[in-house]
Amino acid sequence: MKRFKRVLTLLSLSAVLAIAGCGSGKPTVSHDGNGSSASNQTSDASTTEATKLKVKTSFYPMYEFTRQVAGDLADVENLVPPGIEAHDWEPTPQDMAGISDADVLVYNGAGMEGWVDQVLESTGVSAIEASKGIEIMEGTGHSHDHGEEGDHGH
Questions:
Q1: What is the distance between the alpha carbons of residues 55 and 70, in angstroms, rounded to a whole number?
Q2: I need a surface site. Which of 50, 103, 116, 125 has the fewest CB within 10 A?
Q3: What top-level class would CATH report for the domain 2-21+50-129?
């Protein structure tokens, strides 16, 4: 559970920093000479759509988390289709083109997506590795005896 919390915290921080770093900054304020000020922001919906980040994610948990964190600030698209394992999937030429057009790729890392290194090298897209900086624990086998009936009561 501690590992999950660390991964979640790191991913949250990474996503927030990436989104904040891609922002346009503070709106400019102009004064009309009468002491009042007006913002130069436009409320046009088409302008808002044009400034949304284009984010690609490697598989569903990365997609859902990124979508929740980014909210209306980004269009988030998942790469790996349902039913396919992230470590078995390979991007098509169309996927590579979509990744190249993205502002950022969010992926798990830690060897989960074997195809990511090639994609990053080929596309040059900015990326967020969710597991970066996390110490990965060695797994252990399931080697204890369950008795005659094979009861798995834990």
A1: 9
A2: 50
A3: alpha beta
Distance between CA atoms of 94 and 31, rounded to whole angstroms? 49
Structure tokens at 103: 């502002």
d(CA 91, CA 2): 33
Do 53 and 74 touch, CB atoms closer than 8 A?
yes
| Tens digits of residue pLDDT in 71-124 | 999 999 999 999 999 989 999 999 999 999 999 999 999 999 999 999 999 999
Does residue 85 contact residue 108 with C-beta atoms inside 8 Å? no
Distance CA 151, CA 139 (A): 23
What tokens appear for 69 in the block? 């964190």
Task: Look up residue 129 and give its two tokens.
Answer: 């590795």
- Contact assessment for residue 74 and residue 55, using Cβ atoms and an 8 Å cutoff: yes
In whole angstroms, give the CA distance from residue 76 to residue 56.
6
Task: Using the predicted structure, report yes or no on whether residue 148 has a pLDDT greater than 90.
Answer: no
In angstroms, the CA 75 to CA 107 distance is 16
**Of 104, 100, 77, nearest in space to 18 by CA:** 104
pTM across the whole model:
0.61
